[in-house]
Amino acid sequence: MPSNKPDPDELIVKTQYFISGETSQANLKQIQQEIIRILQMEGYRQTDVDPLPIGPIQHTMDFRLFDGIPVEDQESLTEKAKSLFGSSGNTREVQDITTDEFLEGLKKARDDLPFRLVFHFKPYDEGDVEGYDIEIESIPVLLQKYRQLPVREDYSYNKKDIVSQNKREVTRIMGRMGLEPLREPYTEAETLKTQLKQEYRRHLDSVEYGSNVLQYLDEGDTCFQRDLYHAALNCYIHALEWTIITYLNEERGKDVIEEQKENEDTRYYFHHFVDLIQGDSPIKQTTMESLQQYKDTERHWIAHHRSGDLPETRVEDVRETLLNLIGELFTPRDH
Length: 335
Known about the structure:
Keywords: Plasmid. The protein is an alpha+beta fold. It is 49% helix and 14% strand.
C-alpha cells in the first residue's frame, strides 16, 4: 500500500521578488520592518528575531502562523542572549514548539494555510539595477502536521488545493507591498530541468514589454507541467513574439506596439518579427533556423490544429529555442 505521507517537493511553494533601492543596511532594515508589519497583520510572528540590536542585519527571516495556533511567549532580551551564547559561546538551536496547547491548535488549523514563511534577501548591484532579490518559501500547515502530529494513514488531503492556496496567499501578501513576482510561485515538483537565468528575468522585468515575455513563459511552463501541450506551445510562441518586440524596442528604438496603435492598417505577425531581426542581430544560426521553421509552419499549425496528438518533444524544442533566443538577445555586449 503506497504511503500517504506528503512529499515536500510537491507542496512547498517558492517564489522570487525584486525590490529596487540601495543595497544598504538601512534600506534592508526598512524593507524587513515593512514585511514584519504586514505579516503580523496577517497573523504571523517572526521566530528568528535577532536578540541583540547591534551588528549587521540578518539576511534571513522566519515567520510562523500564530493566529489560532498558540506559541510560546517571546523570551526577554537578556534571557534569550544568555540561552544563545551561554558560557561556551555556542548558539542554541531553535526547537519546534511541542506543547499540548500548540499541538491542539495545529491539529485544528486548515491544511492549506501557509504555516511557515521564510524570506532570504540577496543584494544585487549590476549596472543601473540595484536592489534586493527576495526568495520566499511557504511551508503549508499540512506538512507541519505530519512532522509533529500522529496523522492517520487514511488522512485525506487535496494536494492541488493546498499548493494553489499557498501560491495565492504569498502573492496576496507580497502584493500588499506593491510588488509583482519576479518568478511566479512554483514547487520543485513543477520545475522543469532547464530554467531561465535570473539575470535575464531581472532584466526583462525592468524593461518595457519584458514582463509579457515572462508571463507567457511561466504560463507555458505551467501548462507543460500539466501535460497541456497545445496550450503550452501557444504560450511559448507568444513569448517568442514578445521577446523580439522587447528587443526591437530596447535595442533599435522600434516600438511595433505603438506603431500599430497609431496606424490601424499596420499589423505585425510572427513572420514579420522574424524578418525584422534577421541580419544585424546577435542570434545564432541554429536559433534563427528554428525561428524560420516556426515562421513557415508553426503559426499555421497552431491556428488550424488545436487538437490531436502533439509530441512532448516538439513543445520542448520550441521552449529551448525561446530560452536560447532570450539569452542571445539580452546578454550584455560591449558597444
